[in-house]
């Protein structure tokens, strides 16, 4: 029963499926008819094919219309060609798109690969350069270490800073001898200045001559390559050189000469270590300053002079190697240089500087041959340097620092316990007796202050102190006399020096006697301490021969006599006695001989 029931259900369902299939076929035919009727009838299709524009239709659309004309009514038949064309078109477009995409991907891949390779190469190169630079920085520091010696800056650091307001005249184009002492100076001291000037004119007529002046400021701006700062021992040359080397006004004026300029400085020092008093130390110091902070220039030097790579300390250098490297560095540098050398007389080797062949002083001559290099040097007025710098512009510091000394004495001398007249007289006499020697006036002001503070305010006692040589100057005088060297033991040198010292002592006594007894008239005549009188008195001849009847002495004879005496003073007395340099218009009869103050 159950089986029969299942069979009946199956038959019923089979019939139901057949009915559904027939319904679907009818719907399909109806859909085709409606679609074809909506798209285009057979007659309409035939009409379309006759139109001119039919040929311009897409090939697949032409195929569909042609099939409609032929009576085809199946949609599947109509779209067969179109589907095939569409498939071909899609396949072609897919292939084209794939080709384009693959090309772009390949190009991008190549670009990325190339960029990565370049980046890796650049990174590798940067790392290599960094390692090389790091290694060369060590080489550069090693090179500088081979030049550096512990005492390199000792002398510069031992030089006292200049007193405020002093040395301003050095930048004055006209070399004004009267600097502004400032509002702090008491007004009545200006009257004392006038009195000092008048008294000085009466007693030492030659000091009224305006000294010849070579403008340091003009020299800085010019193409001239040498300038000489000369002066007495302890007159302040080193302090002045320190001011010049490290003052912004120096750089400002140098930039008018060359916009890209550097300053180098070295200070010789006889009491210091060996390298502070020889040419080798100077070359080490200057080369160090040129190369400091210039690793690129150092690398070029290694290429030009490979042997310098192996230097480890200053003892590895010979002077010839230093000179060669220094000259090369100055020439190879894009900068110009102004070199300040203080105290040439402190280096014994430089006494040969006018005659440099086969001597260490050749280094100075080599420096002067380098383009765009200026040299400003200071020294005492010894014979060698007078010869070497004879044609160079110069300044004799003791001729121009009188205003500085006056300023120092006014501001540092404790004059509160003195009467006005005594105060003015003490300042005047202190400045006069200083004769441009700053060390002397510094020591003397200290002695006077100690006496005044202990209530020794008698002007006679203070004048007595002025006439006494400070003990601190004894070593200076001993050093000056010792610079004669072995020549000091020569009898002829000893006799010549003794003669002039004794003559000056006697001449001053005579001058003082004649002046005190009003036996000189105004204006002052030729003094006993004049160079001409001293030259005549120093002749090793009998009085009868000098004063022989009928003897005629020409001006040329007198000039030759004075010139010989001047040379003897320089060679035998070594600055302890000297002839002050004044203007060329000063008569020879009014040139005097003076001693270093003390």
Describe what this molecule looks like in 3D.
There is one protein chain. With 598 residues, the protein is mainly alpha-helical. It folds into three domains: 154-172 and 213-400, 3-Layer(aba) Sandwich (Rossmann fold), CATH 3.40.50.300; 176-209 and 401-482, no CATH class; 484-595, no CATH class. It is built from 25 helices and seven strands. It has helices at residues 2-39, 42-49, 59-69, 75-78, 80-147, 154-158, 189-203, 216-221, 237-245, 248-257, 279-291, 295-304, 319-332, 362-368, 383-388, 397-400, 402-412, 420-434, 438-453, 459-467, 474-482, 491-516, 531-537, 543-546, 555-573, and strands at 226-231, 261-267, 336-342, 373-380, 394-396, 577-578, 594-595. The strands form two sheets. The protein has a five-stranded parallel beta sheet, sandwiched between helices. The chain has a two-stranded antiparallel ribbon with strand order 6-7. Helix 14 links the parallel strand 3 (336-342) and strand 4. Helix 2 (42-49) packs across helix 3, helix 17 (402-412) packs parallel to helix 19 (438-453) and helix 18 packs antiparallel against helix 19 (438-453). The longest helix has 68 residues, at 80-147. Residues 177-209 and 587-591 have low confidence and may be disordered. Pfam families: NPHP3_N. Keywords: Coiled coil, Repeat. InterPro entries: NPHP3-like_N, P-loop_NTPase. Residues 113-140 form a coiled coil. Residues 182-209 are annotated as: Disordered.
């Amino acid at each position: 029963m159950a089986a029969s029931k299942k069979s009946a259900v199956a038959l019923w369902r089979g019939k139901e499926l057949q009915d559904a299939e027939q319904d679907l076929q009818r719907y399909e035919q109806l859909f085709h008819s409606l679609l074809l009727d909506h798209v285009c009838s057979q007659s309409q299709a035939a009409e379309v094919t006759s139109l001119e524009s039919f040929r311009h239709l897409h090939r697949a659309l032409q195929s569909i219309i042609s099939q409609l004309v032929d009576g085809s009514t199946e949609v599947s038949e109509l779209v067969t060609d179109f589907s095939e064309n569409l498939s071909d078109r899609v396949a072609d477009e897919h292939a084209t798109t794939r080709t384009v995409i693959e090309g772009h991907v390949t190009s991008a891949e190549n670009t990325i690969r190339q960029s990565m390779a370049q980046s890796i190469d650049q990174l590798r190169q940067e790392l290599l350069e960094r390692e090389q630079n790091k290694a060369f920085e060590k080489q550069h520091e090693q090179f500088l270490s081979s030049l550096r010696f512990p005492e390199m800056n000792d002398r510069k650091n031992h030089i006292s800073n200049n007193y405020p307001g002093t040395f301003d005249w050095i930048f004055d184009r006209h070399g004004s001898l009267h600097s502004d002492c400032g509002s702090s100076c008491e007004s009545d001291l200006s009257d004392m200045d006038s009195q000092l000037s008048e008294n000085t004119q009466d007693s030492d007529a030659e000091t009224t001559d305006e000294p010849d002046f070579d403008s340091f400021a003009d020299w800085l701006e010019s193409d001239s390559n040498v300038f000489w700062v000369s002066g007495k021992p302890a007159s302040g040359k080193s302090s002045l050189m320190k001011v010049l080397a490290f003052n912004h006004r120096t750089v400002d004026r140098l930039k008018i000469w060359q916009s890209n300029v550097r300053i180098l400085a070295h200070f010789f020092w006889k009491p210091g270590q060996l390298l502070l008093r020889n040419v080798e130390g100077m070359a080490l110091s200057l080369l160090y300053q040129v190369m400091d902070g210039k690793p690129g220039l150092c690398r070029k030097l290694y290429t030009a002079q490979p042997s310098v790579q192996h230097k480890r300390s200053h003892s590895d250098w010979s002077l010839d190697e230093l000179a060669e490297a220094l000259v090369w560095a100055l020439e190879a540098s894009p900068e110009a240089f102004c070199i300040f050398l203080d105290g040439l007389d402190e280096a014994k080797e430089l006494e040969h500087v006018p005659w440099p062949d086969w001597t260490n002083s050749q280094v100075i001559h080599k420096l002067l041959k380098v383009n765009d290099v200026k040299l400003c040097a200071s020294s005492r007025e010894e014979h060698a340097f007078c010869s070497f710098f004879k044609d160079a512009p110069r300044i004799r510091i003791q001729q121009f620092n009188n205003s500085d000394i006056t300023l120092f004495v006014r501001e540092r001398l404790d004059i509160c316990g003195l009467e006005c007249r005594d105060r003015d007289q003490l300042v005047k006499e202190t400045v006069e007796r200083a004769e441009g020697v700053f060390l002397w006036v510094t020591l003397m002001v200290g002695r006077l202050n100690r006496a005044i503070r202990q209530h020794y305010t008698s002007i006679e006692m203070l004048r007595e102190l002025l006439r006494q040589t400070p003990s601190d100057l004894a070593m200076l005088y001993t050093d000056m006399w010792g610079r004669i060297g072995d020549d000091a033991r020569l009898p002829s040198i000893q006799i010549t020096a003794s003669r002039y010292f004794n003559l000056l002592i006697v001449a001053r006594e005579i001058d003082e006697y004649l002046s005190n007894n009003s036996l000189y008239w105004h204006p002052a005549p030729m003094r006993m301490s004049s160079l001409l009188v001293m030259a005549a008195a120093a002749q090793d001849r009998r009085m009868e021969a000098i004063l022989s009847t009928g003897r005629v002495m020409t001006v040329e004879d007198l000039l030759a006599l004075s010139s010989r005496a001047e040379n003897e003073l320089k060679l035998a007395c070594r600055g302890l006695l000297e002839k002050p340099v004044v203007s060329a218009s000063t008569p020879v009869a009014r040139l005097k001989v003076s001693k270093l103050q003390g």
